[in-house]
Amino acid sequence: MTTTTDLVSYEDALASYDPVMGLEVHVELGTKTKMFCGCSTELGAEPNSQTCPVCLGLPGALPVVNATGVESAVKIGLALNCSIAEWCRFARKNYFYPDMPKNFQTSQYDEPIAFDGYLDVQLEDGETFRVEIERAHMEEDTGKSTHVGGATGRIHGASHSLLDYNRAGIPLIEIVTKPIVGAGERAPEVAKAYVRELREVIRALGVSEARMEMGQMRCDVNLSLMPKGADKFGTRSETKNVNSLRSVERAARFEIMRHAAVLSSGGTIVQETRHFHEDTGSTTSGRVKEEAEDYRYFPEPDLVPVAPSREWVEQIRAALPELPLARRTRLLAEWGISATDMQAILNAGALDPIVATIEAGADAASARKWWMGELARSANESGTALDELAITPQQVARVAELVAKGDLNDKLARQVIEGVLAGEGTPDEVVDKRGLKVVSDDSALGTAVDEAIAGNPGVADKIRGGKVAAAGALVGAVMKATRGQADAARVKELILEKLGVSEG
Ligand code: ADP
Ligand code: MG
Ligand code: ZN
């Protein structure tokens, strides 16, 4: 099935319309047990081995709220500058789907645990944009369906489906923004920056690893356009389960161009869910959107209300870690770097490795240099993340130390790093095994210097005649002869000494 979608160019779309966005992010919490039962949440277990009467929805089973789940929700709410409800309830969201054995999802409806907050996000150029948060509420994940036999893994064309309920009941926090207006052409960038900032906040709080590629964090992108200058929102589409930062940006961009095409040709946007396709960067129609009343929400009668005491909330607030934006702002000032430098560090995933390397004793400049230079290049080449490279921050700090002591120059240090990455051992072991040490003692260098002078009599004459700059060629020859291990500064001194000239 191929459908082509008419698009208006991005520039033309933005010339006539203002985009309005709403982002709904689901985060799977990293609790040991599920939200309403004691089943393990460990990944990778045999299908349906982590289930019980509660998460299978067997008649008469009674759920109990996971206190760590509530605490995580409060942490997230506070980090997002939200108010925390003094009293709130869970609600049943009723619908049938095979991966949801209870025939309702236990969620929160009009009484979310956290509401009315904001998150400041930073754009590529360092500018800050405030995204208002409508609510953050607790709910549970569904099971997982696998459709077998079809071409695309979709249910269409499948011969049968497999159901795994291990995921059913894993705690989720859903974080919903207020309509984001005023971002204009930067709307897709704001969407991406928001999801990235939220991911960093979640990780800093330690409530989830928030790995999008593993489905621990996913984003629904709501988007509508209104004619420039209008004050009434247009009809939105909702692109579901977008699972990478890049896709969030692309999905928003695509929907802007698609909506503009529909609207400018006199059509109307239907409120529907849509699927995003990584390969084409486009979205296709999903299902026509249910209204809230279709779910017949009602308060969950089997669970007691959640009433976090003010003392407890304040204890949690006092124990919050330094949040990512504050940390970045502090480091940027401490290191004296620009917003663009910081952005490059973030994009490379190098912030934590650099900080850890500094904590292990390296100075900030060399920690940044190695992670953003040699190591970033190496990670790029092998397609791995920086923090998955076979070198620790402690080892990088040791390399920096050897350079600072003059035992290694940059060229040798690169070889040491290469050796560590290749599994040849610690930096010191690689230095020993490969015999990589700056040679600076005169007896060892003397012979090489004599040979260089003898081999280049013309150059030597020029230097004797006062052209000190020509010494570079002889230094180069010595470096070559010593496979880069000579102390270049000392070599130059020796050459000048032997030729009887003084520098400058
Ligand atoms: P639903 O559960 O039906 O998706 P929610 O209210 O939970 O509804 O979420 C809708 C999201 O879309 C929110 O982030 C909201 O701010 C945003 N939103 C609401 N109306 C519009 C609109 N017209 N255009 C774009 N986004 C919108
Ligand atoms: Mg929604
Ligand atoms: Zn269970």
TrEMBL record:
Pfam family, one: GatB_Yqey
Keywords: ATP-binding, Ligase, Nucleotide-binding, Protein biosynthesis, Transferase
GO biological process: glutaminyl-tRNAGln biosynthesis via transamidation; translation
Domain Asn/Gln amidotransferase: 352-499
HAMAP family noted in UniProt: GatB
Family: Belongs to the GatB/GatE family. GatB subfamily.
Summary of the function given for this chain in its UniProt record: Allows the formation of correctly charged Asn-tRNA(Asn) or Gln-tRNA(Gln) through the transamidation of misacylated Asp-tRNA(Asn) or Glu-tRNA(Gln) in organisms which lack either or both of asparaginyl-tRNA or glutaminyl-tRNA synthetases. The reaction takes place in the presence of glutamine and ATP through an activated phospho-Asp-tRNA(Asn) or phospho-Glu-tRNA(Gln).
Subunit organization: Heterotrimer of A, B and C subunits.
Protein name: Aspartyl/glutamyl-tRNA(Asn/Gln) amidotransferase subunit B
Organism: Streptomyces misionensis
